[in-house]
Amino acid sequence: MTNTVGVLVMSYGTPESMEGIEAYYTHIRRGRPPEPEQLKELTDRYEAIVGGVFPLRENTDNQVKALQETLNRDERTTEVEFRCYQGLKHARPFIEDGVEQMAKDGIRTAVGIVLAPHYSTMSVGSYIKRAREKAEELGIQMSFVESYHLHPKLIQAFASRVNAKLDAFEEAGAKRGEVRVLFSAHSLPERIVGMGDPYPQQLLETSEAIASRTGISNWQFTWQSAGRTAEPWLGPDILDTLQNLAREQVEDVLVAPVGFVSDHLEVLYDLDIEAKTIAKEIDIRLMRIDSLNSDPLYMETLSDVIIGRWRQGTDA
Ligand code: FEC
User: Fold this and answer.
1) Exposed, middle or buried by CB within 10 Å (0-12, 13-18, 19+), for 218?
2) Share of the chain above pLDDT 70, in %
């Protein structure tokens, strides 16, 4: 008889409809409803990117489906069947719903992974905490992948996207070596640094590995999408970085948002609309690498680390 292993695939989550934005935003703010002007501002941003369907929902659905297929094709694990369950941080099905569904389906052993390669206590750590608590309550033995930011297939997938866009710059008349590559990721409150959080270091390591694989030296790291709260967030922010590059007379910039794996608001709005508008005003030609979405190399990265984690769990 085949043994079924549950895989809880966790992602940020996005509203299901325009009417759902307020509840989603309230959840992000840990139960505090947004002010009307904050809600309007977020609704306007979604209106600018949503063409009938919220992109992150569609992308997460596709990633979960493709991951299950990849896991079950793997010849190293023919004795088990992997069944993937979705668990979202801020929308339905919530992380707890995914764990509950596993329990209803009789799953006793599971691995959890987040669709974000870098670990921070404030990001991946908080997904894992919620999943672990629910799994303990329901008697599921769960282990977790914390990060996979240097997996060779992940680096290969990002590197080929950087190369493709550097080719596009060359075709448009730019000199390859003069294009400044900006690796970026979601900012977090500055206080994580004092907590010894590995997030900034892991992001630098991913950036260095991609730069080394593509042979680029003209690059730097910058933050993006900082939250709208009173405390200081990690910087410099990409919009300030662009202004600085204009002062340095850099004309061509390629953004590689390596902290994200899907097309969603922080990429489709913050980079493709907001950053591109600023870049245009200051005469910078800005391009962005394509998102990984369901790239087979990304699916193989996830599958590989999940199988590795599951084996460690069963050997322990
Ligand atoms: O497309 C979509 O619908 C969702 C896009 C989306 C992604 C995402 C990823 C991350 N966030 C992270 C941290 C924070 C912290 C706060 C925060 C706030 C927001 C708001 C929206 C939002 N985030 Fe997000 N994030 C996405 C969307 N995020 C909308 C609320 C409005 C705003 O501030 O823009 C601040 C919470 C607070 O107020 O206390 C902190 C991190 C990631 C990347 C890792 C991951 O995917 O988990 C870190 C995608």
Assistant:
1) middle
2) 98
Q: Which residues line ligand 1 (CB under 6 A)?
A: 12, 14, 25, 28-29, 42, 54, 56, 116, 122-123, 186, 188, 227-229, 259, 264-266
For residue 178, with 0-12 CB atoms within 10 Å meaning exposed, 13-18 middle and 19 or more buried, which class applies?
Answer: exposed
Select from 29, 263, 266 the residue to mutate for testing ligand 1; criterion: most ligand atoms less than 8 Å from CB: 266
With the most atoms of ligand 1 within 8 angstroms of its CB, the residue from 9, 12, 61 to mutate is 12
What tens digit of pLDDT does each residue of 49-73 get? 987 789 999 999 999 999 999 999 9
Q: Could you tell me the domains of the chain?
A: 3-148+295-312 (3.40.50.1400), 152-288 (3.40.50.1400)
Q: Whose CA is nearest to atom 40 of ligand 1?
A: 188
Q: Which residue has the tokens 């764990």?
A: 99
135: CA distance to ligand 1 center in Å? 25
What's the predicted TM-score (pTM) here? 0.96
Cα–ligand 1 centroid distance for 134 (angstroms): 23
